[in-house]
Amino acid sequence: xxxxxxxxxxxxxIIGAVGCSNVARTSRDAxxxxxxxxxxxxxxxxxxxxAESKIRQAQLNADIRAREERNQWSDNELERTDADLQxxxxxKLEANIPRGQLTVKxxxxxxxxxxxxxxxKEYQTIEPLAKEIKGVKAVNVNVEVVPPTPTKx
Length: 153
Fold this sequence. Notes:
The chain is about 45% helix and about 15% strand. The chain has five helices and four strands; from the N terminus they run αβαααββαβ. α3 packs antiparallel against α4 (about 80-95) and α4 packs antiparallel against α5. Pfam families: BON. This is Transport-associated protein.
């Protein structure tokens, strides 16, 4: 019985450690940490197709709307948890910069964004989009512009 209990407890610990992440990513190709790098920054086709789908756009909008409505009921609308800020900024960036491979981390209202985008225009929209989220005090952008390579057909 003790071995079984130990097995169950260690399984929960492993799942908890693997499942917890302290950053929010706009795509599976985005860095997993703030000091990480993108594996294939030129390959943005698959990420874009997912982010631009109508279903995904509806999911992102519903997520943002639900968090906004929940936060309206709090005493101070501008006080958000770091997790809420990360999620809202990530959703905003994913919806508006579908070809970006970005990672978002929030700490005490300061949002740090790392990763790659395919052009300067999308790079210039990162900070203004992040600042649209209530509770964001400052934005640090450490994003590279890497043009995509042409896809082979």
